[in-house]
Amino acid sequence: MVSSEQRRRQLAREKYERQMERRVEAQRKRRQRNIVSGVVAGVVVAAAVGSWAGGVFDSDKKPAAQAAPTTAASPTAAAAPVKGCTTPAAGQPNGKQFKTEPAMSIDTKANYTMSLDTSCGKVTIALNAAKAPHTVNSFVYLAGQQYFDHTKCHRLTTEGIYVLQCGDPTGSGSGGPGYQFADENLTGATYPAGTVAMANAGAGTNGSQFFLVYKDTQLPPNYTPFGKITGGLDVVQNIAGGGVQGGTGDGAPNANVVLNSVTTAKG
């Protein structure tokens, strides 16, 4: 025979277990929503009047900037030395802002490559102009403006979502070029290792923040895939191996990863 006290304890235990299950599920959904944010919630790209900060590949919109991963990296935190990384080239981001998306100037039938000369090594990316023309056009334009030069990759995620987020001239997860553009290439989008995709703060809020996937990652098809790493995936994996500042799974990388220069080329 179960006493009233035993029954009370059983009900209390079951209630606690339900609460914990709901909490774990909420944390799981929040983490997934925030990844490539939530730059990137920062993943990343919000408007000049939005703020980039959030989960992996998402950008949290805030009333005055762009967004990035949910856990925005601190631009003042000290980075630990990581083997293979060197002192960044001298210089500062130019901080240029633009009122509108650049006019289409690329040949959507041509091949384009983007080269990231980082303080931790070179990464080469094949851009998909056919399936993400506005995205590629924006990167070609911004690279030509030296917009990305001397900018820091501000966010690294190492638990569940495996990305390095870059493209914010403020290095804080709250910057962008001043304009936004629509999502592209989302139908059936997946994010295996080597994928390069846009971070955002919601539908149609792409700006300049992007993420590099260094290990197969499960994400909803909400982040425009616009390129594939063809050289230097080991560089990104080495950065990831250095871990996150503070020992967490989402934040500023220990490696001081700076894009010394970013260039694009046709052909």
UniProtKB/TrEMBL annotation:
Domain PPIase cyclophilin-type, residue spans: 121-264
TM segment ranges: 35-57
Keywords tagged on the record: Isomerase, Membrane, Rotamase, Transmembrane, Transmembrane helix
Enzyme class, UniProt record, top EC level: isomerase
Catalysed reaction, written as an equation: [protein]-peptidylproline (omega=180) = [protein]-peptidylproline (omega=0)
InterPro entries documented for this protein: Cyclophilin-like_dom_sf (IPR029000), Cyclophilin-type_PPIase_dom (IPR002130), Cyclophilin_A-like (IPR044666)
Signal peptide: none
Annotated region (Disordered), positions in chain: 67-101
Compositionally biased residues, Low complexity: 67-81
Superkingdom of this protein's organism: Bacteria
EC number(s) reported in the record: 5.2.1.8
GO terms of molecular function: peptidyl-prolyl cis-trans isomerase activity
PANTHER family: PEPTIDYL-PROLYL CIS-TRANS ISOMERASE B-RELATED (PTHR45625:SF3), PEPTIDYL-PROLYL CIS-TRANS ISOMERASE-RELATED (PTHR45625)
Function: PPIases accelerate the folding of proteins. It catalyzes the cis-trans isomerization of proline imidic peptide bonds in oligopeptides.
Family to which this protein belongs: Belongs to the cyclophilin-type PPIase family.
Protein name, per record: Peptidyl-prolyl cis-trans isomerase
Lineage of source species: Bacteria, Bacillati, Actinomycetota, Actinomycetes, Kitasatosporales
